[in-house]
UniProtKB/TrEMBL annotation:
SUPFAM superfamilies named in the record: Serine metabolism enzymes domain
EC number(s) reported in the record: 4.3.1.17
A Pfam family it matches: SDH_beta
Biological pathway: Carbohydrate biosynthesis; gluconeogenesis
Boundaries of every Serine dehydratase beta chain domain copy: 9-161
InterPro entries the record matches: ASB_dom_sf, Fe-S_L-Ser, Fe-S_L-Ser_mono, Ser_deHydtase-like_asu, Ser_deHydtase_bsu
Keywords (A to Z) from UniProt: 4Fe-4S, Gluconeogenesis, Iron, Iron-sulfur, Lyase, Metal-binding
Organism: Larkinella arboricola
Record's protein name: L-serine dehydratase
UniProt catalytic activity: L-serine = pyruvate + NH4(+)
Lineage of source species: Bacteria, Pseudomonadati, Bacteroidota, Cytophagia, Cytophagales
Start and end residues of each Serine dehydratase-like alpha subunit domain: 189-452
Needed co-factor(s): [4Fe-4S] cluster
Amino acid sequence: MNNSPITTSIFDLFKVGPGPSSSHTIGPMKAAFDFLERLRQRPESTLKTADSIQVHLYGSLSATGKGHGTDRALVAGLLGWQPESTDPTALLALLKDPNVTYPVRVGEREFAVGVAHIHFERKKYESPYANTVVFRLADGDKTLFEEEYYSIGGGFILRKGEDTAEKTAAEIPYPYQTMKELKTRLYDHQLTLEQLMLANEMALTGWSAKEVNGRIDLLLDFMHKAVRRGLRHKGTLPGSIKLRRKAPVLYQQARGLAQSSDSFLIFLNAYCLAASEENAAGGIVVTAPTSGASGVIPGLTYLARHHFHYDKTTLRKGMWAAAAVGFLVKHNASISGAEMGCMGEIGTASAMGAAFLTYCAGQPIDAVEAAAEIGIEHHLGMTCDPIGGYVQIPCIERNAMGAVKAYNAFLLATAGTPANQKISLDAVIKVMKATGRDMSTKYKETSEAGLALSATEC
């Protein structure tokens, strides 16, 4: 377990950016941008003799990067684009013509980057993480400058040689590493969960409570815009699978069955599919905690806003509960499909969604913990085996299933006495980490086994 306290910002966990994958799109774009910034700090003498920028992808980035648009994301980052301000249409247009190169400006030099400069390596590469990208400034076969990055899920990246411990800009007032420690802080200081989380966030960012709350409202707005776009957009998703969008059809079906007991579930399915289909199309989404799982929380928050009629204050409270669970999984296991399989993505999102619903309903922290534990427990061992490397099958429907499980976890956790729950959230996260470690790499975002092998039947 990581021995430092959790110092992740809610705005790092929930990030705005283009789909379809936080680890394969947002992470590589951020790494490329960081490499560009470091190139600009190199002495002119080094740049003068260089003739190219080469990018080498390993692990899952190599195995499924094409389907995720990793090559486009790398070019975008080298061009100076940032995930939160990227035009998804412009991103999709990159590398459409394999003969086109793009000028990367570094000081007085300009380097052409295109398909020939991005290498999807199939050989084994010794690396501490499954998603590795190496950038090289080269003079022929000679490397003049090199940086190695790891995309660790949810758009988070690490650079080789950096301290991997989580960093903080300020001393947080209520440090914790586990749910047990979090609950102790709440009880000792007589705080509500949102009070503690907000105090830590203000210390991390230096922002006022009003600024933090406004940014959470903005995140919810981005999520709900993705849902609304997905409910409108029809047709076929990009890629060789030719998968047709389903959300608009389900939404119309739910509206036609408004008096039916099934309509509630159909509405929830439609909302989750809508955001997830937008992600698969490369649209702007919010990592929750990843892009591959970016349909669960948006679908549930949209349902809470428009069916339960929760106000902004209640939705914000729920978002803090979801963030707390996401932080705990990221800190003590992983939210990366390449590390944990889909239990790291949809499993975490479902647990976060269960915590959101439970806290919005006014339930105590014990119930929030129980709901999150149930959410993860019933995703243990779930494989990540996307067909063709696209975040489409089984990913899109899996978002809807994860949300339904979240709702059921909320019901189960609040049906009895939460304190009687036999398995703690901390315990199930330990099991999750061990399961991910033991799972075959074939089932962790490499498209080498499972449903991915049914691609020939599509």
